[in-house]
Every structure is written in C-alpha cells, then in structure tokens.
Amino acid sequence: MTEPLVVSDNLENLINICPGSRAKRIEKTALSLADQELLNCLGLPDSLFSSTLPSGISADGRLRIILVDDAADSQYDALLAALRAGRELPSPAACVAFTGRNFHGQRQRPWFAQRGNLHLTLYSQPDVNIAETRTGLIVLPALAAIDAISTLAGGNIGLGIKWVNDIMIGDGKLGGVLTATQLQGHRTETVVFGIGLNIAAPPKIEPSPFVPQSDFLQAHLPGVSLRDVFWQFMKEFEKRYRQLLRQGSGALLDDYRRHSLILRREVCIWDEDSLTNRTNWIKGEPLACGVVSSIEDDLSLRVNDKEIYRGRVSLTRICDRYGFKCDLQ
Fold first, then answer.
1. For residues 48 and 7, is the Cβ–Cβ distance under 8 A?
2. What pLDDT digit, counting tens, does each position of 24-46 carry?
3. Which residues pair with 269 in a beta bridge?
4. How many CB atoms lie within 10 A of CB 32?
5. Bridge partners of residue 50, in order along the sequence
C-alpha cells in the first residue's frame, strides 16, 4: 500500500507532528508535478524534509500532509486561488501552518495565527451530488472538531456551535471553520475546508456581543498538544466524511442541531450587508430578535416566523450584558 506523503519546510515541526518516524531531506523536483504544484502554491522552498506517518496512524495513501512553519498568506486562500485558476492538485491534502499572516474567518474577519494553535486547510475532490451533501459539507468540519476534542477529553466539556460555524466552550470562542466548494452541474467537484482551533493560547480580541471572549483548549485539557488535536481531528474528519458520503447530510444536520448553542434560545441577528453604522461592534440593521425555533435543512434559522439566511448572531443574554439593544427588542 502506498504511504501518504508528509512534507515540511522545518525538521523540528516534522518531528513534532510525526514523532518516531523516518525523516529525510528531499528536493521538491523529486516529487510528481501535481505535488510540486501544491507545494508551489503554498510557497514552500525547493529543499524540504519528508517522513513516514507516526506509529499507530494510518491514512489513505493518496493523502498529502504539508507542514509550513510560517505561511506568508492564508493557505485556504492559496488553495482556492489555485483551484479557480484550473491547477491540478493532488487530493486529498491537509495543510498545516504553525504560524502565518493574512488568515481570516467568515467575511474576512482576521484570524490571528499563534504558535501552538491549529491552522489547518483540507482539500478534497468528493464529486458528490450537491442536493444530498451541500449542508453536510458546511457543518462537517465543526462536527469533526467537536468529536475530536470530546474524544481527547473523554467526554463533552461544554462544547457547542454558534451559527453558523463558531466552535465555543461556554461563551468563549475556541475556533471556527470555513467551507468553499466548486460546482459542476449538479455535482460538487472540489471542496476546501479551513479550520482554526485555539490550543495553546487565545488570540487577543476586542470583546463584543458576538465574541465576548476567546478561549483555548489547554485551559480545559492541560497537556493536550497540537499533535494530539491534529491527528484526532484527522481521524474524526475521515469518519464524518465517510458518513456524509454514505448517508447524505441528514445525520450530520441532526448532530449539528444537537450541538447548537442558539436553538430554542433567544437571540438577536444583525445584517452585516447593511452600511448603516449602528454600533461600535457592527455596521448593520437588525434582522430578527427572538427565540430560534428551528434550524432548517439549508441551515437557515426560523425566528419569530421569519426565515433568516444570513447575519451575525448573539445570544440576547450576552447582548444585555453589553447593553446592546436593537429596535426589534
């Protein structure tokens, strides 16, 4: 069976993620043209290090794991740009940045990359029916993150998902995920996932009703490492991915609702597309305030008989803490 390719521009990082494996120096030109294309779009140099998987870890022989010490730009954006330019990339691929610049979450909100935290981009070519898998692909990485952390913790430690894909511990944001797809007819041909999880340190943020505080995993699981989270996440992601291919979105959506922090709770949702500057925290108009009665199969929210497809959400109790009121309350 073919071994996955594990490549890094930093030997220490490679040994950290793949302890006990066989590491060696390689030249980029010794790899396939598709692998070279992937490494080039991620900005890796010609001289690299490669290794086998650590003991006890198995993976699809087609998998490429790319470890970048300091990414000049968002790997998520780099892969999307390469795909949109029609470049042929090996699939599947997992790209980890130990630190970097120009990372972001939803709507280009900055995501500060700190060493010890997980900054992961996954790329795959599922070639699946859009109608059967679209929402499942959106929620899959957040569910895999909760599965991985819960497994490492030996049970749930207060994890939840704030619509759409913020991963929370209580009121603290632990991470977030992104999903982008390329479509052809009725099929999803390619998908890129971005996953950011705070493990060793919380990024400094300006508290707001939408993100009152940041949190990090080691505050709840002392001793857990980036290596632990990465490999457990990859295992849980593969399980969820196979579940989606076998069963469609339904089972994943059920679990997403089960982990939701806003379902059957009172929220306020704001329209970020409005140019009206309403507060110091957000430019926008309120879309709805009230109890979220349901999360529909397309991930829209039902609030006071309104169907909400977009916006930024906060629990009303947190809005009250900040004295943040809208005209609809």
1. yes
2. 999 999 999 999 999 999 999 99
3. 288, 313
4. 10
5. 7, 24
3-state secondary structure of 296: coil
Do the Cβ atoms of 92 and 62 come closer than 8 Å? yes
Give strand pairing partners of 175: 167, 197
Whether residue 167 has pLDDT greater than 60: yes
Tell me what percent of the chain is helix, strand and coil, each rounded to the nearest 5.
30, 30, 40
Can you tell me the distance from the alpha carbon of 232 to that of 41, in angstroms, rounded to the nearest whole number? 27
Residues whose CB is less than 8 angstroms from the CB of residue 88 and which lie 6 or more positions away in sequence, other chains included: 34, 37
pLDDT for the residue 228: 97
CB atoms within 10 A of CB 76: 27
Q: Are 123 and 79 in contact (CB under 8 A)?
A: yes
Contact 119, 103 (CB under 8 A): yes
Q: Is 0.85 surpassed by the pTM of this model?
A: yes
| Strand partners of residue 71 | 100
List the one residue out of 122, 133, 174 whose CA is nearest residue 150.
174
Give bridge partners of residue 271 from the DSSP assignment: 285
Task: Specify which residues 129 forms β-bridges with.
Answer: 187
**DSSP 8-state class, residue 217:** G
